Amino acid sequence: MKALVYHGPGERHWESVADPTITDPTDVVVRIDSSTICGTDLHIMKGDVPEVVPGTILGHEAVGTVVAKGDGVTTLAEDDRVLVSCITACGRCRFCKEGHYGLCMGGGGWIFGHLIDGLQAEYARVPFADTSVYKVPAGLSDEQVLFLADILPTAYEVGILNGRVEPGDTVVVVGVGPIGLATIMTAKLHTPGKIVAVDLADARLAKAIDFGADIALNSASEDVVARVKEMTDGLGADVAIEAVGVPETFELCTELIRPGGRVANVGVHGHPATLHLETLWIRDVLITTGLVDTSTTPKLLKLIAGGRLDPTVFATHRFSLGETMDAYDVFAAAAETNALKVVLEGSKHQQLMPAHKRPAATAKV
Ligand SMILES: NC(=O)c1ccc[n+]([C@@H]2O[C@H](COP(=O)([O-])OP(=O)(O)OC[C@H]3O[C@@H](n4cnc5c(N)ncnc54)[C@H](O)[C@@H]3O)[C@@H](O)[C@H]2O)c1
Ligand SMILES: [Zn+2]
Ligand SMILES: [Zn+2]
Fold it and tell me: Which ligand is nearest to the CA of 292?
């Protein structure tokens, strides 16, 4: 088969590799029907995630079809369409039993395209299949469910639920890339009073308004803390959600919240950030961090099936799997291409109609 293989910082190739096979009885092998690229893949390409060894197939988000299953798999059959999530659950360890699959100690957690071969490939081996994949309800398209593999549960769990967003709250989302936009989308499930988007890029801020933000502030040209205080009787926001991953934005979030407010950090940080306890200690603040568990996937899937949530607006570009190299270039140049999520389509779609012959996806909400 062909797959996107990481060969060290800055080096990737779409190349022939061995077909995956069942190695453990709890495995399935899926044909990848739709996959996508994550900002984290770009971090890996820069060498920021050293656990990823050269030779690893990248990718941790996909919808596929089961083509083979191990003897220990009891709830899945060949031809089942499944969502393969960024998080794998062994189902047996202490953390899996608590629903904290991201912390799995039994061989799961974030493993695809990280510790084992990933999902930007024609086929993939999926460990712990019974406890890790989700059957796709009939009638839902790949693109309706694909973004449940990472950005939606990440935004909802690590942003909205950790931040304890309540009806009426003023919620500031700092950084409105795909994760920040998914935070805005899922914040609306909790009916906040006001959603404020903060970014340095005007194009991203315009997108945030499309996604339902009430106010967009460019932190390069505006005093964001002063503006948020103005709109909250001088108090600050109830919740600030950090969706960038740099020290400045974390520190900004701690300045944006009211006494008793909450900061939910979603960004992946590569450098230390300063925690200003000298000003925060007396303000009764709550600060949370975390890796997504994907425990809310069934709930979000139900909302999509019921027409309450439509993540298809994230799909701004489509490529065939064989064009994954070009898709990385388009995704990495998001400032120029306005890419949010690029969809990589497997042979199933190509048989229906090749990607380049179909109308481009629109990013209208
Ligand atoms: N915690 C988790 O489980 C988890 C899961 C997935 C992704 N993440 C992390 O979430 C973060 C966001 O992901 P993404 O894919 O949306 O990233 P992205 O890079 O596409 O978007 C980041 C946005 O932040 C903006 N930005 C950059 N610097 C800024 C600054 N100083 N002030 C304001 N805005 C600024 C950029 O213009 C961009 O729009 C990343 O750090 C990613 O690694 C975390
Ligand atoms: Zn990801
Ligand atoms: Zn586990």
Answer: 1
Q: Residue 308 has what DSSP assignment?
A: S
pLDDT by residue (tens digit) across 286-340?
999 999 999 999 999 999 999 999 999 999 999 999 999 999 999 999 989 999 9
* C-alpha span between 118 and 101 (Å, rounded): 18
What is the phi/psi pair of residue 342, to 5°?
Answer: -105, 130
Contact 37, 12 (CB under 8 A): no
pLDDT 10s digits, 203-262: 999 999 999 999 999 999 999 999 999 999 999 999 999 999 999 999 999 999 999 999
Task: Name the residue among 41, 7, 1 with its Cα closest to residue 327.
Answer: 41
Query: How far is the centre of ligand 1, averaged over its atoms, from the C-alpha of 85 (Å)?
Result: 20
Beta bridge partners of 84: 62
Q: Half-sphere exposure of residue 141, counting CA atoms within 13 Å on the CB side?
A: 10
Structure tokens given for 247 = 């020290």
Indicate the pTM of the whole model.
0.94
- Ligand 1 and 175: CB distance under 6 A: yes
Concatenated DSSP letters of 101-114:
GGG--SS-BS-BTT
Considering every ligand atom shown, identify the ligand nearest to the alpha carbon of residue 176 and give its number.
1
For ligand 1, say whether the CB of 200 is within 6 Å of any of its atoms. yes
Residue 355: which pLDDT band, with cuts at 50, 70 and 90? low
Q: Is 210 exposed, middle or buried (0-12, 13-18, 19+ CB in 10 A)?
A: middle
pLDDT of res. 69 = 97
DSSP code of residue 10: T
Q: Hey, is 116 helix, strand or coil?
A: strand
Tell the residue nearest (CA) to atom 8 of ligand 1: 267
Distance between CA atoms of residues 242 and 135, nearest Å: 32
Half-sphere exposure (Cβ direction) of 232: Cα atoms closer than 13 Å: 26
Which residue has the least CA distance to atom 28 on ligand 1? Answer: 244
The tokens of 71 are what?
């003897």
